[in-house]
Design goal:
Structural class: alpha/beta
Oligomer: single chain
Strand order of the largest sheet: 1-2-3-4-5-6-7-10
Distance between the termini: 17 Å
Order of helices and strands: EHEHEHEHEHEHHEEHHEHEH
């Protein structure tokens, strides 16, 4: 999971106080951020900051690694994107795709058409990972059920078999490794469903992008998952949940979009899970791992993300990364 490190450049960022100096170096963890932490969920939306501002601010916050975000938000011409990221000292860690592979072989062609463009850009940017997010089972805005929240045995077989096929094709054609992202309001969400998915897929093909916020949102324990399925953890998203907001979200059965608008994902270190034990458990795996900060905030005021990003980077630095 390596690509060339960007050249260092001056940063205007807060520095941890001596009292918050890193207790130890988590040398295997590479910290980055993503358009998601700037309230970006769509390729084009008037409520989102322009991509130039995102790149300026993520660099100015002290991050060196970024994800592509929704395809089309950042420039899709590799030459343009390489120039824009390089002059800000940024390097791409991964691209992201959305899939509905449980729906059977008939969705393969449309899925591959979507994946191939993003994988090609990811490869061109020197990244080695493709984050795969399953389809939502209910509408992210209205909450209307799009399909059953529970997969049938046949759908589980389609999901696992086609995920392995996707992993093979992406590896063979683009040299990328897929990391499947458990996500609220999808069929890979809770501990039960995540472990069922891992147990049914080939470990040599399919790894996990453990999103600490989504996993906590769905009742999972990130440290336990890392300690139990360490060889399957290929990538991390660092995120926290506000437990009080989550309780109201669950009581009202809100879909994920309105839950985010209510503030269910919060600024570290004010939520759960605590990130220090997660990072320590990840370090113990003895492999290099990206840990990309994501604080879902769509939609948000344009001036909100930058101060949070700076504080979050300072907090993580105080944790040793």
């Amino acid at each position: 999971m390596t690509s060339l490190s960007p050249q260092s450049s001056p940063r205007s960022e807060p520095q941890p106080s001596p009292e918050s100096s890193p207790p130890s170096s988590l040398s295997r963890i590479r910290i980055g951020s993503a358009p998601d932490s700037w309230g970006v969920w769509f390729p084009d939306d008037p409520r989102q900051v322009p991509w130039q501002r995102f790149l300026d601010e993520v660099s100015g916050s002290g991050y060196e690694w970024i994800e592509l975000g929704p395809y089309g938000y950042l420039p899709t011409d590799p030459a343009v994107l390489r120039e824009e990221t390089a002059r800000r000292g940024l390097t791409v860690s991964a691209g992201t795709v959305f899939t509905g592979l449980h729906r059977g072989p008939e969705v393969w062609d449309a899925t591959w058409e979507h994946v191939a463009d993003i994988a090609a850009l990811t490869q061109a940017m020197g990244a080695k990972h493709l984050v795969v997010i399953p389809a939502f089972w209910r509408d992210d805005k209205t909450g209307a059920a799009l399909e059953d929240s529970t997969l049938t045995p046949t759908q589980w077989r389609s999901l696992t078999a086609q995920t392995e096929r996707l992993a093979h094709e992406v590896r063979e054609r683009f040299g990328l490794r897929i990391v499947v992202h458990p996500h609220a309001d999808t069929h890979i969400d809770s501990e039960e469903n995540v472990t069922r998915f891992l147990d049914a897929t080939d470990s040599s093909l399919v790894s996990l992008c453990l999103d600490t916020g989504h996993y906590a949102y769905c009742g999972g324990d990130s440290v336990k998952l890392i300690e139990t399925y360490g060889e399957r953890i290929g990538y991390l998203h660092l995120k926290q949940v506000d437990p009080l907001v989550l309780a109201s979200v669950r009581a009202e059965e809100l879909p994920f979009g309105p839950a985010v608008a209510r503030g269910v994902m919060c600024e570290p270190p004010s939520g759960v899970p605590a990130l220090e034990p997660v990072l320590a458990a990840a370090q113990q795996l003895g492999v290099d791992l990206f840990a990309i900060v994501e604080q879902d905030m769509y939609p948000c005021p344009p001036d909100k993300p930058l101060p949070i990003a700076r504080r979050t980077r300072a907090f993580l630095r105080s944790c040793g990364v």
